[in-house]
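Q: How would the structure tokens look for this protein?
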Amino acid sequence: MPRQKKNVTDEAETIVADVAEMASVDNLPLPLPTRAKRKGVDRLAQINAIASKVFAKEGTPLVEIDAASLRHSKPHLPSGSTVLDYLIGGRPNRFGIAPCPGWPKGAISNIFGPESSGKTTVALSASAETCGRGGQTVFIDWEHAISPDYAAAIGVPITDPAQFALYQPNTLEDGLKILWLAAKAGVELVILDSIGAGVPKAVFGQSLEEQGSTGRVGLLASIWGVFLPKLMALASDSGTHVMGISQLRKKINTGGPPGGGHGPDTTTQGGEAWKFYSAVRMDFHRIKSLKTRDYDALTHKNVERFTSAIIKAKMIKSKVAATQQAEAEFYITFGRGIDDMMSVIDIATAHGLIHKGGAWYTWERGNGDTLKAQGVEDLRKQVMAAAGGWDELKAGVVRSMSSGRAIEMAASVVEEEEPAVDMDDILGTKPKPAEEDDGPGGAADPSSDE
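A: Here is the predicted structure in token form.
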């Protein structure tokens, strides 16, 4: 007779019976005492003792928190941007420690935004930083759209199979298999581009007559909903950071105003599960394109053309630092990636490390040397040419942002109070002010000096 599959109730009863049996072996009474301590027995000690028996084979899931760990940054991967590192978790906590100045290891992140907002550039920059420190990256490209030349320009070792692996699966399920293997192996960074571009096998394998039909509604989201909780636990154990890139899509609206009349009319790919299981969710938008003069071979002239952009990053969700809803801006140069030098110069100028007068910039180095430049580009060249200049300037900026003065100023910021709501004004019950008596002559003459 075939064995019948247990339902949820049967499984729950089996778990309860197993725990009760383990408790009886050690003469530990269940239910536990109602008070925290009774007759010298600590309830938590009882639970831990039972758990060590129940999980004797696989090991108890109890996590012991070391007080010293609160005074150290969480293990992380640098983003390649001073601004993004600070936004994710670079602002010092009450111990004066940056909680997580970079993408957290052993966690999932979700970065999203409209097209050309820098999402893939941010992911490739994280890969370049990870590989540059001896780590490894697996890039799962469901879109089949990565530019190897651009990735190499950013610094990704795309030709080194020992550090970088590019996969372009046809179906969602094939990509998930690679993702699972990479996370289980403890690869430092896995990038998914993009999480909505993976086509489920049920849709990919449609016949010619079925092409164009959507199949089951919500199939992609349901697969991610089942897979992500398992992936989150696996990544936490292996230390892998999984970065999922999402495009923005219009919400399906069956009538009424955009967005159904509530909130934005766009949403991210992959369903709600990515919102729940991501430790970090960041929204990117291009807010300005910048022009510079450059040579144009078509006209054989120096012309103005768009060469870079300012990107605004907004922290939608953070489980690693108190940065929820924080915003910051950084630069991306077309063809080269994140321009961290420009961001550092801006921050250094704001903190007084670099003095600006008109178009002139002056930086006094720690060794006594002074760099004086006309314009940002001249300053950039001098900083890069000076021995140790870039490292010193960046370290000075990070130190200034983490200084006691910066923390003091941040703590002193007081939000403006909203005006009190007058219910009499709303209900129309406020008494009218008494009219002043202007005397027998009626209203006062506005031309009068009195």
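Residues 219-238 form the longest helix (20 residues).

Residues 22-63 form one domain.

Upvote if useful.
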